[in-house]
UniProtKB/TrEMBL annotation:
The keyword Flavoprotein applies. Its EC number is 1.1.3.-. This is L-2-hydroxyglutarate oxidase. Gene3D superfamilies: D-Amino Acid Oxidase, subunit A, domain 2 (3.30.9.10), FAD/NAD(P)-binding domain (3.50.50.60). Residues 4-393 form the FAD dependent oxidoreductase domain. Keywords: FAD, Flavoprotein, Oxidoreductase. It comes from Cryobacterium lactosi. It is an enzyme of class 1 (oxidoreductase). The keyword Iron does not apply. One of its GO terms (cellular component) is cytoplasm. Its cofactor is FAD. GO terms for molecular function: (S)-2-hydroxyglutarate dehydrogenase activity. InterPro entries: FAD-dep_OxRdtase, FAD/NAD-bd_sf.
Length: 402
């Protein structure tokens, strides 16, 4: 009989790993998901973009696995007949101060092999791609695409079940102990023994890591991203995706316009500190999560470095005209009433070191037979199938039990 392997977390990464393991016939695979459905957190609450790899430092895991992951997701959607729309992305510099950062993105994108990237100069060239945009220069990535990550996760879960794997939703892992070469995993209804465990628990990944004695650093810092819906009567303002030039000091991409697979256009996400790991609005507050963040050794350093941007983002979250003003920089014809309502927010699981630095790259730890994915923010949905191969090839079986 093969090994018994558990995966904790039924987001796209956990399910992609389970799928790769059953297809490689590597053992008896069980996924534990605490919610009553898959993709309930980051995977089902994101921008739905398949990134082409423009931004990432060449040579990093993000750069490598995003490029490989994009191809795998594209081919998987074709195989399963799932929607995949290459609407393309325009990264727009609105004024001269943004030109050096735009040039840097262009350099990185070329080093990362982003296909068919084009540099555009002057409003007229930009408007050939996006007729309503304002800006002085841009890079255009025609193969950036829109997908439905929940549908992809569900299709992968079907592959897992169809190849002998088990998916247990509504099963929160409450405790985990390493017992010799095995791992005991406890849920409310049973205790299970596994040969290997892979943890892809997103917003809870540091909590689970602590159960097996891993370093408490990095800790997860939850950052909420809020979206506004664009009035369906005005979605002709946006053909594909319009992104700002991101601030290189910050790991998030900035408020952008995205045309989804169902032709809806949303504006966002911003980035505000969430007051609970799963805090999808200002009204969800966990004193424990907030207190843990405030007393983390890196808290002072982070606040000192980013307080100005923090105030700006929080004001935009609370005061619609401020959010609108940022969006209108890119589309002057936008009117405040075109942003009709807030749609489902997402919370990013951003890893944070005890020195106060936000981790940029994907990060993995191995504690005996337990593999811990400790930082899997964007573009981890794009990269999910490549992350699965990377973990299986370089971590999960690296330690032999005999
Ligand atoms: C606002 C926003 C926009 C984004 N946009 C994009 C984008 O356009 N493109 C892109 O590529 N990426 C994007 N991302 C990032 C992407 O969504 C994530 O990187 C990706 O979904 C991570 O997948 P995951 O499976 O690791 O985590 P998750 O989807 O968060 O899954 C983790 C799962 O673990 C479960 N879990 C936790 N604790 C336990 C426990 N004790 N027992 C059992 N189960 C447990 C949770 O319930 C959850 O379902 C975005 C993220 C956000 C928040």
């Amino acid at each position: 009989m093969g090994e018994r392997i558990a995966i904790i977390g039924g987001g796209i990464v956990g399910v992609a790993i389970a799928r790769a393991l059953v297809l490689r016939d590597r053992g008896e695979v069980t996924v534990f998901e605490k919610e009553d459905r898959l993709a309930a957190h980051q995977t089902g609450r994101n921008s739905g973009v398949v990134h082409a790899g423009l931004y990432y430092q060449p040579g990093t895991l993000k750069a490598q696995l995003c490029a490989a992951g994009r191809i795998s997701i594209r081919d998987y959607c074709a195989e399963k007949n799932l929607p995949y729309r290459e609407v393309g992305k325009l990264v727009v510099a609105v004024d001269e101060s943004e030109l050096p950062a735009l040039a840097d993105i262009e350099r990185r994108a070329l080093a990362n092999g982003v296909p068919d990237l084009v540099r555009l100069d002057g409003t007229a060239q930009l408007r050939e791609i996006e007729p309503h945009v304002a800006g002085i220069a841009a890079v255009h990535s025609p193969h950036t695409a829109a997908v439905d990550y929940t549908a992809i996760t569900e299709a992968m879960a079907e592959d897992v079940r169809g190849n002998g794997g088990t998916i247990r939703t509504g099963r929160e892992v409450l405790a985990m102990t390493i017992d010799g070469s095995r791992v005991r995993v406890r849920t409310a209804d049973a205790e299970h023994l596994f040969d290997r465990v892979i943890v892809c628990a997103g917003l809870q990944s540091d909590v689970i890591a602590r159960l097996v004695g891993a370093d408490p650093s990095p800790k997860i810092l939850p950052f909420r991203g809020e979206y506004w819906a664009l009035d369906p009567a005005r979605t002709d303002l946006v053909r594909g995706m319009i992104y700002p030039v991101p601030d290189p000091r910050f790991p998030f991409l900035g408020v952008h316009f995205t045309r989804g697979v169902h032709d809806d256009v949303h504006v966002g996400p911003n980035a505000v500190p969430a007051l609970a790991r799963e805090g999808y609005s200002w009204l969800t507050v966990s004193p424990k999560d907030t207190w843990e963040s405030l007393r983390w050794p890196g808290a002072g350093g982070l606040a000192k470095q980013h307080w100005r941007m923090g105030i700006d983002e929080i004001s935009g979250s609370l005061v619609k005209p401020l959010y609108f003003r940022k969006a209108r920089r890119f589309i002057p014809e936008l009117r405040m009433r075109d942003l009709t309502h807030k749609t489902a927010a997402g919370v990013r699981a951003q890893a944070w070191g005890r020195d106060g630095a936000l981790l940029d790259d994907f990060a993995v730890d191995q504690v005996g037979p337990v593999t811990l994915l400790r930082n899997a923010p964007s573009p981890a949905a794009t990269s999910s199938m490549a992350i699965a191969d990377h973990l299986i090839d370089h971590y999960v079986f690296a330690r032999t039990t005999d």
